[in-house]
Amino acid sequence: MEHRRRDQDSFPTPVHPGELQKPQKLATTESHAASLCMANAVFFGLFFSVAYFLLHRWREKIRTSTPLHVVTASETAAIVSLVASAVYLLGFFGVGSRASFPEDLSDEEKEYSRKSGPCPAALVGADTDAKPAIAQSPKIYDVVAPANLNLSTEDEEIVKSVVSGAIPSYSLESRLADCQKAAAIRRSAVQTITGKSLEGLPLEGFDYDSILGQCCEMPIGFVQIPVGVAGPLLLDGVEYTVPMATTEGCLVASTNRGCKAIHACGGASSVLLRDGMTRAPVVRFSSAKRAAQLKFYLEDPLNFEALSLTFNKSSRFARLQSIQPAIAGKNLYIRFRCSTGDAMGMNMVSKGVQNVLDFLLNDFPDMDVIGISGNYCSDKKAAAVNWIEGRGKSVVCEAVVKEEVVKKVLKTNVEALVELNMLKNLTGSAIAGALGGFNAHASNIVSAIYLATGQDPAQNVESSHCITMMEAVNDGKDLHISVTMPSIEVGTVGGGTQLASQSACLNLLGVKGASKDSPGANSRLLATIVAGSVLAGELSLMSAIAAGQLVKSHMKYNRSSKDISKIVS
Q: Does the annotation mark 56 as catalytic?
């Protein structure tokens, strides 16, 4: 109570803001604040000094076997100082923070005072019985509405509530039942809080209902990425116009040139090697012996049927293909692989894995499930297990490019391409310690197609694993080029594939939605198109490097002299 009384007496109750300009009162406030700072500094220094002194003395006593309860006069004084400084600091920062508000302040005024600081200027005065005047903060309450959407008075009140924290930003969609308005209000709140303009980030013209609960949380607009087309890509006897969403100049043009060269030589062919998404939980036992027992159980072919039936209950498309366990001490990593129809399948395989884990607990009740994913999957990370075993769709694509096409379209020769591929894509990548990166720029094409077709962009990491091979054939006249991609992770249903723009791009390729005739056919076809496009991109870029045209073409097509800073969509 003494600390409370002292703090309240130290801060006279505020008066009308007009009286705050009196120099005498301001001088009193500054003097009091300086004295408080000085007192705090003294007690802080005293507390840590005596604490260090006592710890040092007690260590000496332990070293010399002196009883700790035997204290000298200096140690007694240090203990008293330690207790006194601790009491002061606890009183000032514990009781004082609550007592700094007069009893007659409303909750709103107290909350504002806390946000404004421990002693705002508008709360300084001389009359201890006067009601404090609350200063208004323009940064908090000046609502900034999006330029292309006029907010009503009611909407502005909601914005203020979001800014103050009374209404959580994430709950706007459920509260308003209007995703478009929720995005506008959230956008206005963000501009108000940050003081930064979002002009140039489009708000209107997007269906926010389509992303609710599945694609993006707390939207405030959408980013525009231009979509170009390369092709036609002649693959397995069918022509495809390939959509590519990118902001990198030359990429679409270069891929298009590769498509032209491949088309002039009769097209490319592809083979799907395997199709299976993976998920690998990590479980732990009390001993490595017990973990090994589960490993042997999973590897026994006699147990696979029961595990498969349990796994397949999760979906009518999920079909367990294999189980690959790996042990590390008493921890076991179990890599499940299954087909997932036309979906990319991460959620599908995760549900099946959970079913199997629940089933295994019947025979292995001491199994401790650490995580549904133990990174042995391995998702969105460069990993040797994906490079060797594959994940998603494994595809190889090849083409034979005629000598005259190499010279006329690609502006180089077969011998130069073969040598460059060996020294750059193979030897150079090996020197760099590349993992799945034995190519020129596979990730460029993969990322562009993924963005255009609604795939998960982060899975570009393992989906871009690729080895590009080139060799001279037909007595050294023609070029055989191939790309082998073991982990292309794509789907034509779910996630971003349902959005209008991405759905249109899938429709352009003829793989929109699920295949009615053969489940999984559309996603498998999309994977081969990705590989065929990578083949075209590799062929064109390697030719540009071999011909010494890379820098020249990028300076021509990847630089803009236009001032686009004033262009607003």
A: no
Closest to 539 (Cα-Cα) out of 420, 390, 382, 385: 420
Q: Catalytic: 516?
A: no
393 and 490 Cβ atoms separated by less than 8 Å: yes
Alpha-carbon gap, residue 242 to 510, rounded angstroms? 11
CA nearest to 283, candidates 382, 380, 364: 364
What does the pLDDT read at residue 143? 62
Helix, strand, or coil (residue 92): helix
Pairing of strands 282-284, 319-328: unpaired
| CA angle (247, 250, 252) in 5-degree steps | 75
Name the nearest CA neighbour of 420 among 409, 408, 410, 428. 428
Alpha helices in 361-490 (DSSP H): 384-389, 403-408, 414-420, 429-431, 442-453, 460-463
Strands 368-371 and 437-438: unpaired
Q: How far apart are CA 246 and CA 444, in angstroms?
A: 9
How far, CA to CA in Å, does 46 sit from each of 35, 41, 84, 95, 324? 16, 8, 9, 20, 63
Catalytic residue among 109, 156, 456, 471: 456
DSSP reduced 3-state for 484: strand
pLDDT of residue 67: 75
- Torsion angle of the four alpha carbons 69, 72, 77, 79, in this order, in degrees rounded to the nearest 10: -20
Model pLDDT for residues 323-380, shown as the tens digit of each residue: 999 999 999 999 999 999 999 999 999 999 999 999 999 999 999 999 999 999 999 9
Q: Is the dihedral of CA 403, 408, 413, 414 positive or negative?
A: negative
Strand 437-438, strand 466-473: pairing: parallel
Q: Which candidate in 3, 131, 313, 380 is catalytic? A: 380
> Are 250 and 276 spatial neighbours (Cβ–Cβ below 8 Å)?
no
Q: Which two tokens stand for residue 71?
A: 């204290």
Catalytic residue among 3, 295, 424, 554: 554
Q: Is the dihedral of CA 28, 29, 35, 36 positive or negative?
A: positive
**Catalytic choice (236, 248, 398, 471):** 248
How much is the average pLDDT of 537-560?
80
For 103-147, the pLDDT digits (tens) are 444 454 444 444 444 433 333 333 444 444 444 444 444 566 555
Active-site residue flag, 2: no
**Furthest-apart CA atoms within the chain: distance in Å:** 103
Closest among 130, 127, 137, 181 to 163, alpha carbons compared: 137
Cross-strand pairs, 331: 284, 328
Interatomic CA distance for residues 214 and 322, integer angstroms: 29
Q: CA of 93: how far to CAs of 31, 33, 98, 147, 153, in Å?
A: 20, 15, 9, 45, 41
- pTM, whole model, 2 decimals? 0.73
Clarify whether 115 is annotated catalytic: no
Look up residue 362 and give its DSSP letter. Answer: T
Partners of 461 in beta bridges: none
**Residue 256 vs residue 214, higher pLDDT:** 256
Distance of alpha carbon 38 from alpha carbon 16, whole angstroms: 29
Best CA proximity match to 217, nearest among 184, 175, 169: 169
Does position 289 have pLDDT exceeding 70, yes or no? yes
